[in-house]
Design a protein that fits this description.
The protein is an alpha+beta fold. It has two helices and five strands. A hairpin with a 2-residue loop joins strand 4 and strand 5.
């Protein structure tokens, strides 16, 4: 596991969910599963709407997708954050 804080890592994954309620539920579930995550404002590059997103290490992407699916938390979009830019990922 990387010792660099998630916000400072070069490559991370941003999960955009459908509501703040889903973000709060995801926080609880991910915390209970021992997943390292940060809750961040949705980057303006992704959406002009106010909202929060879940930021995880790139290596936890599939694990987090599985946990969210098992917890019935729908994911709106997934982005790879690389060098400060966000690339939408289509394969989930």
């Amino acid at each position: 596991m990387d010792c660099i804080p998630l916000e400072k890592q070069e490559k991370t994954i941003v999960f955009v969910l459908y509501s703040i309620h889903n973000v709060m539920k995801a926080e609880k579930v991910l915390r209970s599963q021992g997943i390292l995550f940060d809750t961040i404002p949705v980057p303006r590059e992704i959406s002009a709407d106010c909202g929060m997103a879940i930021l995880v290490a790139r290596g936890d992407r599939q694990k987090v997708l599985k946990i969210l699916a098992e917890s019935r938390i729908d994911v709106k979009d997934v982005y790879l954050r690389k060098c400060g830019k966000h690339e939408k990922e289509n394969d989930r």
